[in-house]
Amino acid sequence: MVEDHRHCIVCGKPTAPDVFFCSPSCEEIFKRGQRRAIRYRNLTLILFVVILVMFVAAYIIRAGP
Ligand SMILES: [Zn+2]
Fold first, then answer.
1. Cβ-based neighbour number of residue 10 at 10 Å
2. In the chain, where are the structural domains located?
């Protein structure tokens, strides 16, 4: 027999079918992780842009008069 329930996406404990977390502390842990992921993605994007600008600048300097 399979009960209709989810598992907490942080710790894996069974939860009610309409919630993602078993407790507010697990929700907080998840949100913190998400914020870190967003920051990491922004950092990667900035790094990519910086490298691109450096390549373009190097090309312009070399191709210059
Ligand atoms: Zn949990």
1. 17
2. 6-63
Tell me how crowded residue 46 is: count the other CB atoms within 10 A of its CB. 10
Amino acid at 35: R
Question: What is the per-residue pLDDT across 31-55, written as a single tens digit (0 to 9) for each?
Answer: 999 999 999 999 999 999 999 999 9
Pair 30, 21: CB distance under 8 Å? yes
Looking at residue 19, its amino acid is V
How far does residue 27's CA lie from ligand 1's centre (Å)?
A: 8
How far, in Å, is the centroid of ligand 1 from the Cα of 34?
15
From the CA of 15, how far away is ligand 1's center (Å)?
Answer: 8
**How far is the centre of ligand 1, averaged over its atoms, from the C-alpha of 39 (Å)?**
24
